[in-house]
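Quick one, T. Sequence first:
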Amino acid sequence: MTSICRICIRRPSSLILFRGPSPSLRPENTSPKPLLIRPCSSKLPPMPKKVVVVGGGIVGVSTAYYLSHHESSPTVTLIEASSIACGASGKAGGLLALDWHGNDTASLARLSYQLHASLAEEFNGRERWGYRELTTLEISCAEGKTPSRHVAGVPDWLRDGVVSKVGNLGTTQSTAQVHPRRFCEAIVKESKDLEVIIGHVSKILLHEDKKVKGVEVEFDNKTRTIDADVVVVTAGPWTTRLLPNIPVSTQRAHSITIATQTPVSPYALFTNIKMRNGSVVTPEIYPRLDEIYACGDVDKLAPLPKFAKDVKVDEGRCRQIVKNISVVSELLEKGEVTAMQACYLPYSEIGPGPSIGWVPGMRNVAVAAGHSCWGICNAPGTGKLLTELICEGRISSANIQSLDPGRYTR
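Structure tokens:
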């Protein structure tokens, strides 16, 4: 992977400008591969009675959903400090990619891509959270310059003659999108008997033998203890504050949304725009059913706040995104900006991808964090695999053995 990672996605490192994902990253077809069974390091009792999920982003919501529908029927409580999808899960672009993943996360990504499609089919996701297949392009242009020749295959909502090069990164068979916040809100509603608590989990409580006892929650100026057989931490960039041995770093990312009167054609765009001052900017553009989303580069100029609701937005960076994308589209230049927003992306500091599995040094505490810009894409698969681990004692739907945090920390 490249070092650049914005709100939604980052390009595979094998990509060269105007070339699609390497054949080595593409499966021969999109049919699911045989499932691999990976036993967990220590088995739980087969039917935990009470599971607490900490973090109401897309990974936490997906985990709570699959736990609530498991045949063992555990009682599931989801605890979120701000509001559902208040962080990156509510401010991401929502691009899904089937085959843009390295060996360590490819199996997870295939599973999750299929689950996104099946959830949309089951719960009318096309209308409820904007699920749809996309063509994904990489385009190049220069501010104030008109190419000498016409370039085919350009979406009709871009300026005539502005694009000098275009390359295909994904087809409707390999890329799709969701509106992440709407997805999260809908999946919470579709969960079975799910308890949602808005409160700040300040501590994981353990017995003397390191087995989990529950969590300590702060809300309404009070502290309450919630008992649990299993605790799952899906707190994104805030994970390390509860689990110091699971290091997760973070970067801030800004984005905007622009209202559209009618839906535009479904093309996700990775752009390379040379500005008049010689700089090159690379905003990403994702049209949705009722708006267009665009994001810019990440920064480390502001520290991670205590709560997602307290993230600071640099409106100057948002206005720069508007200026940059106006080069490629009059629709974007003249459209009404309906949101200027920022969030923090979580990056795992151990292993080759997100940390998914049992937390070393604790019993019956699991973690799923550090998905970077792939969190939206890989959340349903992560939730399903954690449910298998917790309720069945082993992961059977994908091979994520290399993501086990027990392999990298003690």
